[in-house]
Design brief:
about 300 residues, 12 helices, Arc Repressor Mutant, subunit A, five-stranded antiparallel beta sheet, alpha+beta, four-stranded antiparallel beta sheet, 2 domains, Jelly Rolls
């Protein structure tokens, strides 16, 4: 199985202090941070990460992508998610800009939706990044500085404000990208994918073991979206590289592992809440995708804690 750099490994490799919330939870807590790039390491190895990253920088580096290397010789902004491999070779000791890091647990439904737009709009590009002129660069730096100021204040609403600023950064990236391709239209398939993901994600989190998700199969989603299941699957394959069944299974496994770790529901209740009529069906599904039974997974997590 391919290894991904964890968010804790990022802090270690960049010689930064690991935040207490990550240490206490062994990397399983909701996490956000925004950092000035002046202390970033010179080289980042080519790999996938298990976290999201937005970075605005002043240039003079090489971006390593799956489609080749790109010379970053002027200001630029980048987006990275866990599905994208990248590497970075800094060519100068003088660095500028900001890095924003956050994991999947930090996302709310609105932010997930906007991040999907970034992935979809840059699909087919070498990498989700944009070169900036000086005015645009200063505007993005200002938005990152607002996040930094809010993050250090520890106010009651700081994360609501930070998520709003993240969305504003994303909107500005989309606006700039659309300006480069002024006649590009949002395809019907892209809208269908977005609507599918909304239906899937909005079923979670489940607030009671007595409740069960209503949309469980590709046919359930296709019916709700008023489309044929084959068309839905084709669009998802085109825009995400994954089938409807694969995306549903990934979401169910993610929610199952979260409930097994963080709830006191019994395994039968967890399976029922995720749409499995019988416990044995849930056990078989979970073991197929993780290599472990739900009981063994939960016992292992308890032993670690």
């Amino acid at each position: 199985m391919e290894q991904r750099e964890s968010i804790i490994q990022y802090y270690t490799s960049t010689n930064r202090e690991i935040p207490e919330d990550l240490l206490a939870s062994q990397g399983r807590a909701s996490h956000f941070n925004v950092l000035k790039r002046k202390n970033c390491m010179a080289t980042i190895p080519f790999s996938r990460r298990d976290y999201f990253k937005l970075c605005v920088c002043g240039g003079n580096a090489v971006l390593v992508t799956e489609k080749g290397e790109i010379s970053i010789d002027r200001p630029a902004i980048f987006f990275n998610d866990p599905e994208i491999k990248f590497g970075w070779k800094n060519l100068s000791g003088k660095q500028d800009g900001y890095v924003s890091l956050f994991n999947d647990l930090y996302l709310n439904a609105d932010l997930r939706k906007e991040l999907r737009k970034i992935r979809q709009r840059f699909k087919g590009s070498i990498y989700p990044f944009l070169f900036l002129n000086e005015e645009q660069y200063e505007q993005f730096k200002y938005l990152f500085s607002l996040m930094e100021a809010e993050f250090t204040e520890h106010s009651e609403y700081r994360h609501d404000i930070i998520r709003s600023i993240l969305k504003l950064i994303i909107y500005n990236m989309l606006k700039l990208q659309a300006g480069l391709v002024p006649h590009q239209k949002i395809q019907k398939g892209e809208r269908l994918v977005s609507e599918f993901m909304d239906l899937l994600n909005n079923q979670f989190p489940i607030d009671s073991p007595k409740n069960s998700i209503s949309l469980k199969t590709p046919n359930d989603f296709a019916k709700e979206l008023h489309t044929h299941v084959n068309h839905l699957n084709h669009c998802l394959k085109e825009f995400t590289g994954k089938s409807t069944t694969e995306i549903i299974a990934e979401k169910l496994i993610s929610e199952a592992t979260d409930l097994l770790q963080n709830s006191d529901w019994n395994i039968s209740e967890i399976g029922n809440s995720l749409g499995f009529s019988y416990p044995q069906y849930f056990n078989l599904f979970f073991k197929k995708h993780t290599g472990k039974s739900p009981r063994a997974f939960r016992d292992e997590m308890i032993a670690v804690i």
